[in-house]
Design goal:
Layout lengths: L1 E3 L5 E5 L1 E3 L13 E5 L1 E13 L2 E16 L10 E16 L2 E20 L2 E11 L3 E7 L6 E6 L8 E5 L5 E8 L2 E11 L2
Antiparallel strand pairs: 1-3, 2-4, 5-6, 5-14, 6-7, 7-8, 8-9, 8-10, 9-12, 10-11, 13-14
Length: 192
Amino acid sequence: TKDVIKVYSGCEIIGGLEKTTVKDKINEKELDIICSEGYIEYNHTIKIGYSSFSQNMSFNGSVPFRIKQPPKSSKDKPKIEGQGEVTFSLSGQADKCTWSGSSPINVQLEGEISVEKEVQYVELKFNEKLPQTWPVTQLCPDKKPETIMMPVMIPAQYDKMKFKLEDGFNISRPFQGMGGTGTYSWTLHLGK
């Protein structure tokens, strides 16, 4: 197994660390260090089912961001910019066949901080780079496992949301339709 250390209170450290704990000395490890002031945590779950077909989809992961302050003499608002990957996972069943797979989705964030009635908010634009298809492994009785290309069908996308600039602030949206249910969830985390 690999451990990943993420530190969001200033810098995020991302890298595979085998059999390493926080107390262990980190030697000869290759790490990417991305300075950030916070991150958006994705936690979407969608379940679709009808007749003999069922499918579960999830988006999980975090996208780090930085806050760019304007010069003191400027009247511009502080900007937020971020980029990262979240994992899209899929599993399903139709008749006696099952399939599963996952794919990274690149997400870019941008927005600006505003003040309303002495409370800070950030309106973020989300740009999610979704592939047209991705590989999944299909298993059917009496057949060898095979890799098939599954079309990407995301039931809904939200490209703009307004967060209160507060650690742990969550926005949830219900998913209904296509014979399924679920929740889209984004949580804003700030470095301490």
